[in-house]
Amino acid sequence: MNETSFQYDNIKQHKNLTFNINVNATHKPTWTSTENGKIAIAVWKYASPCIFALGTIGNLLSIAVLLRKRMRKFSTSLFLVLLALSDLVHLHSGLLRSVISYSTNATYVSHVEVTQAGCKVHYFFTYFSVHYSAWVLVAVSVERTIAVWMPFRVKQLCSRKSSAITLFIVGILLTAANLHFFWTAGIIPAPRKRNSTICNLSGNQYKVFWRQYWPWIDATLRSYLPFTLIVLSNSLIIAKILQTRRQRKLLTSRTCNHSNGITSMTAMLIGISIGYIITTSPISVFFAYVNYIMYHHGKIPDQFVGSFQLAYAVCMMLHYCNNAVNFLLYCVTGPRFRKELIVMFCCLRTSTLQYKGYYLKKTSYASNVDATKTTRYSLSSSRSNGGSRTSRGSAKNNNSRQSQSRNQTYLSPPSPRNSPMTIR
């Protein structure tokens, strides 16, 4: 972790929290006793569990809806499923440890703090997941731009196969960009605590890389370049939508219906893109400002540490909201997603009712079969008794028995095989 800049998890997982900034060892940080410091701790303590719960439930519901049959036919659904998965990984690798630490009075120690492998894997997935989320959003923005500007070629250019290849290539490139954590990060002795270790920068030979190069590489991959491409893509999409609305009267009804279908998915994209810009811009500006301060002054002035802590806490909560609120944005901006969500819950209820109906139908059929057997037995006994009494009768009684037999046949209930209550 860079000692001269704020990073995602540069707050130690203890009740008394300190930034990884250049503070003299002889001077004990007192920011926790300031008003801004207390507010910062309250933000981490109460806001982070809510964001974590909302993000976990929302992303799981998003995956369930996007994997349904009617949603899988859109190539955009593949992008959004992977976006939800990467958001889940980032919430559980980055925010979960803070939730546990701030929600309990005891110090939270996990495999990240005690094993080299855990430390390296934690760093890799924390950064990889946030980078991958940003670039999945870039990929889906480009795909929607092609769908809006070239609707007749979208099936050839944006098939599910091509989307999978694109996401695979993006994953390979981002893996290469974050692979250095497996040799630059590790367990080291805590600088201001005896007999304690932290997961941090593991070698002095990498300090130049961490301090001068990695903050800008991270900001470019996470925010600056994705932000530029997303804004450009959405500007092109909005321009095309406005142009299409002017020409709507000239379009046929079939083309209008197709255009409305595209607009439904496009509205979801614009919604999550705006949400991404709003939630990630503050932390990017904050990191840029902190890097500027550290470059020119060497450290954060002591009297401003509490204010920087509060600003960092608010910006990080907004950052994690980007990984948590996509489900709500889908529901608000995507009519197709909203309808499919309702259908999914209705199907669960319908399946339960169908099972209950099947049980009642089966029970009713069994009762009808028993009643049929009882009726047949009664009629058979009646015919047997009638035959013994009329064995000495005349032709008139024979005609009467034939008439009675026809009436009995007419009154006999249908065979279970032909019964409408039979479950085949």
UniProtKB/TrEMBL annotation:
InterPro entries noted in UniProt: GPCR-Ligand_Int, GPCR_Rhodpsn, GPCR_Rhodpsn_7TM
Main subcellular location: membrane
Positions of region (Disordered): 377-424
Biased composition (Low complexity): 377-408
Annotated TM spans: 46-67, 79-100, 164-183, 224-242, 262-290, 310-332
Alphabetized UniProt keyword annotations: Membrane, Transmembrane, Transmembrane helix
Places the protein is found: Membrane
SUPFAM superfamilies assigned to the protein according to its UniProt record, in alphabetical order: Family A G protein-coupled receptor-like
A cellular component term, taken from the record's GO annotations: membrane
GO MF term list: G protein-coupled receptor activity
PANTHER family reported in the protein's UniProt record: CNMAMIDE RECEPTOR-RELATED, FMRFAMIDE RECEPTOR-RELATED
Protein name, per record: Uncharacterized protein
Organism encoding this protein: Owenia fusiformis
Lineage of the species this protein comes from: Eukaryota, Metazoa, Spiralia, Lophotrochozoa, Annelida
